[in-house]
Design goal:
The chain contains 4 helices and 2 strands; from the N terminus they run H-H-E-E-H-H. With about 100 residues, it is mainly alpha-helical.
């Protein structure tokens, strides 16, 4: 498993967020999906939340999408950490 996938999984586990793991190197359909949303690349992690695909997202981006598209998947007592540094700048630029 790649380091980025492992990091995201640990963060999701820490916040007790359920997810379904697909190894795209063992799953041709999973690889095709990732290529379809990552401009032809097999970039991981790629996360699908409802109808939204997130390529190499932060845990904050995954949780924000989950709150918007699959509200029941986010614990009611979860408080999103405030983005820092470059992520704060990106969040502001993107309207977050």
């Amino acid at each position: 498993m790649c380091a980025f996938c492992g990091s995201l999984r640990r963060q999701l586990d820490k916040h007790r967020i359920e997810y379904h793991l697909v190894n795209i190197w063992d799953n041709p359909a999973g690889a095709a999906y990732v290529r379809s949303v990552a401009r032809g690349h097999e970039t991981v992690p790629t996360v699908s939340v409802g109808t939204v695909a997130l390529v190499n997202p932060t845990v904050q981006a995954v949780l924000a999408a989950a709150r918007k598209h699959t509200r029941a998947s986010v614990p009611t007592n979860y408080e999103a950490p405030q983005p820092r540094g470059l992520f704060r700048l990106i969040a502001r630029v993107l309207g977050g």
